[in-house]
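Worked example

This section walks through a single chain of length 195. The input is the sequence exactly as stored; nothing has been trimmed or padded.
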Amino acid sequence: MKQEYTITVYTENQIGLLNRIAMMFSRRKINIESLNTSPSEIEGIHRFTIVIHEAEEVVKKLVRQIEKQVEVLKAYYNTNDEIVWQELALYKVSTDKVIEDVKVERLLRKYGARAVVIRKDYTVFETSGHREEINNLIDALAPLGLIEFVRSARVAIINASKGFYEKLKEFEAEEPGEVLVENEFLDKQNEVFSL
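Given that input, the structure is written out below as tokens.
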């Protein structure tokens, strides 16, 4: 059964990696609902947040394939219940409409919108939340003179996790093993590698 999944990928910041990852989705005919890239909590490491609507088996295979990329350090997939997530939206509304119509001002207050630009001809409001909340405000503002709208990609943090940074520190703290393991076939080259 298909459902919404958020894929989080920690990578080195390499040119062309975004294109290679996007190709993995397009080859499988998987539509990317939302894509965000940003620096992570670790210097030099970037974080991709990708939202798709797909079956879990497909998502598992896709995440394993993504992890095979040399620059990818780790990839996770989560359902919406396993993450904290938000999207940001900007709404452009006629300033005259905001001043004249009390309904517009009440709506904006109800949805926690705040003005980020106020000009004579238009006002831009900003709000954040889940997609449904953002879409509800679009629907409410549309008949009242919504001029323009844009929504960001999802940003998400995994609930039950110490975070990738902690895991990386644990890995770096591990001492290399004391025992040196020799290749058991090293002294049998003629038997093993004969042409």
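What to look for: Strands lie at 2-12, 32-39, 45-55, 72-79, 83-94, 114-118, 122-129, 146-151, 155-158.
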